[in-house]
Amino acid sequence: MELKVTTLEGKEAGSVQLSDAIFGLEPRADIIQRCVQWQLNKRQAGTHKAKGRAEIWRTGKKMYKQKGTGGARHGSARVPQFRGGGRAFGPVVRSHETGLPKKVRALALKHALSAKAKDGGLIVITFDEGSDAAACCGETSGISPSHPNVPLPGKTGPGGGRTGAVLLSPLIRPGTVSTVAYNHYSLLRSIEDIFGLPHLGDAAMPQVRSFGPDVFG
After folding, report:
1. pLDDT at 143 exceeding the cut of 70
2. What are phi and psi of 13, to 5 degrees?
């Protein structure tokens, strides 16, 4: 499979050949669903907890005598049938993690990439974050600089010492650079702001900032 390579300025920069063993499979939704469910189960905190009858702060003395009251027979007031009593078979702190073989996880990733490639959802971007003078962190290839196969630092080599993230959206101009600490929740919060929706989940946290004019400008 062949994909076009694009620069941050939106210009074509050749093409790249992708392996059909990874990007050319017929997507199977069942395998992807298994991996997604495994991820969601593993992500659950499992900190839910309800008190049982042994954990309720209440007297365990028999409420009244066994016979002669005309009412039902009762003992402790901690039992679940009374208000304020312990809960029977309530949730306890536990792990929701389920097992999934590593080979199935890898196969699910291949099918997800194949699905994106089939729908035209893959974009290959090439960009240089460094200068042409030096490689990142003093990295060297260990080969003589005169060797013809030595990559040029900052061009085809390790690149410079800056790191960054690439965000793809038709609303963002090519080559946008920001020093603000955005994350994927910032993207969700920005979408909610655009459509006038309430902030959901972690996107509602006060420390999460929506994309500003430095991105959309």
Report:
1. no
2. -135, 45
